[in-house]
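Note to self: user wants both folds in one dump. Writing first protein now.
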Amino acid sequence: MDPWNKMGEDERGITNNEVRTNFNNIPPVQDFFGKCTLRFLGKIVRTNDRKIQKKMLNAWILASRKSGMPQKTLRHSFKTTIKIALPDVIISKDAPLKEWAPIARNEDKWEAVID
């Protein structure tokens, strides 16, 4: 039986750590998505101020979401990723631009944060 198919996973109880070990200790997928998110945010911060992406980066609606709607938005994902990457820099719970954008404007410093 193929140990990587779904049936093998159910029978043997293969864990994520075991799979990562078998593939030369690859990092968890959350790390990959976090790095992609940080690169994306860094590029947006460094773009021209007139670009719509940069304008939208700080245009959040802070009202609570209606019942039945997804409670986690893109803003929440950005905030969580930034707080994990910059725990010593981010002071407030909302991770406002003024706390992390100065670092992101310097591409070398931002790449050091990502790696």
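First done. Writing the second protein, which came from a different request thread.
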Amino acid sequence: MRQKISHIENTEEARCSKNTRHAEDFGKWLTKQELADFLGKSARTIERWVSGRTSPPFTKAGNTILFHIDGVKGWLKGREVNVTIKARARNGFRQHNHI
């Protein structure tokens, strides 16, 4: 996943420099389409998440919705699933004791 984040950050930096903005001053922001590409989802899915308030935190600038990369990282971190041994057993995974 770090590779994907790096790719998005590099893409954003390139776009910022083309628009004569300084990426370090402005921060790393993603459009709905960039977020969709990063997550492997459709832009429509991101729109549904936004309207259902289940998306990463976002900022509106007029009609434009932007996602800060740090907010996206935090949102993803908050959705980590820790599979316990008990949960694995419930789902058919058996623990084997090797002596």
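Dump finished. Worth passing along: The two ends are 36 Å apart (CA to CA).
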